[in-house]
Amino acid sequence: MDVFETVRTVLAVRAFQAKPIPVKVIHRIVESAWLTGSSRNGQPWHFIVVENRATLKQLGSLAPTGPYIAQAPLAVVVAMEPSPYAVSDVSRAIQSMILTAWSEGVGSNWVGYQNLEQTKSLLGIPADVEVMAILPFGYPAKKLGKGRKNRKPFAQVVHRERFGQPFE
Amino acid sequence: MDVFETVRTVLAVRAFQAKPIPVKVIHRIVESAWLTGSSRNGQPWHFIVVENRATLKQLGSLAPTGPYIAQAPLAVVVAMEPSPYAVSDVSRAIQSMILTAWSEGVGSNWVGYQNLEQTKSLLGIPADVEVMAILPFGYPAKKLGKGRKNRKPFAQVVHRERFGQPFE
């Protein structure tokens, strides 16, 4: 799918079909994270691909805002080596994954890091690496709308030449 | 252009043709930022579209790492209302813009914020809003490679089931 069409239609998905995601698509999702640009090419990131059902269930129980991870066929745990730009860099990689997945019909959602220590110990993540997000992925359980989004008025956030002059 | 192909080929562009960017494409670039998802739908962002040559020149002189902004036909100054998730949210919106632009043949690069106070005063940005990045946009001055990227080995950053088990 075209990039703009993907950005326009992508929605957070929290309920997934059991249908597995083809290996080729999984590969493409994590490759899009790996290939993302970062400040000074620092690449301060790690992506842990989880398909094991027991691990997915444990991740779901460790994430108060993401119990639906337990039902997803796939999750990517995103971790970072802290640096002044790491949050930006890793967020860009996450956006690349969300868009690449959606363009293949696969939905996801950004689940914030919680119960950090247990998650790290579950996945063998070293002490100096931080968990930033868990992204469950899967085919949406129900048909979603056409991407209608609840956003602030365009003219409130997009300015022309100077702050406060609406772009359109 | 397809999302994965865009992520795979996008490169930082620092030299631009004088050729203006069509209004429709500019609109699409900022719309992709506006439509990006954010934590709790907070949308803590502002995007200032700059095409005025004098302003572009001033931005170029205020950004030690981005003097080439002065030659770009367009820059989007990205600002945020600080919040715990603002850096992540805004970084995602920037990634949406970079990918949307590239899929239309338009290159860009993330220029870090510097000389913050002068930039804010130049653009009339309120005291409680922070400048995060300046993104110059334009058609690349020279033909770029096929997106060959200098990245850490895939197996070093992509893990299977547990940290340290290479994905492939």
Write a brief structural summary.
The structure is a homodimer of 168-residue chains. The first copy, chain A, is α+β, with helices and mostly antiparallel strands.
Structure write-up:
2 copies of one chain form a homodimer. The first copy, chain A, is an alpha+beta fold. Chain A has a single domain (3-157), classed as NADH Oxidase (3-Layer(aba) Sandwich). Chain A is built from 6 helices and 6 strands. Chain A has helices at 3-9, 23-34, 53-62, 86-103, 116-123, 154-157, and strands at residues 45-50, 74-80, 107-108, 111-112, 130-138, 158-160. In chain A, strands 1, 2, 3, 4 and 5 form a 5-stranded antiparallel beta sheet that branches. In chain A, helix 2 packs antiparallel against helix 4 (86-103). The interface between A and B is large, with 67 and 67 residues.
The unreliable regions of chain A are none
Per CATH, the architecture of chain A is 3-Layer(aba) Sandwich
CATH class of chain A: Alpha Beta
Beta-strand percent range of chain A: 15-25%
The largest chain-to-chain contact, stated as pair and per-chain residue counts, equals: A-B, 67 and 67 residues
Write the layout of secondary structure elements.
Two copies of one chain form a homodimer.
Chain A: H1 3-9, H2 23-34, E1 45-50, H3 53-62, E2 74-80, H4 86-103, E3 107-108, E4 111-112, H5 116-123, E5 130-138, H6 154-157, E6 158-160
Antiparallel strand pairs in A: 1-2, 2-5, 3-5, 4-5
Could you name the key traits of this structure?
homodimer; 168 residues; alpha+beta; NADH Oxidase; 5-stranded antiparallel β-sheet; 6 strands; 35% helix
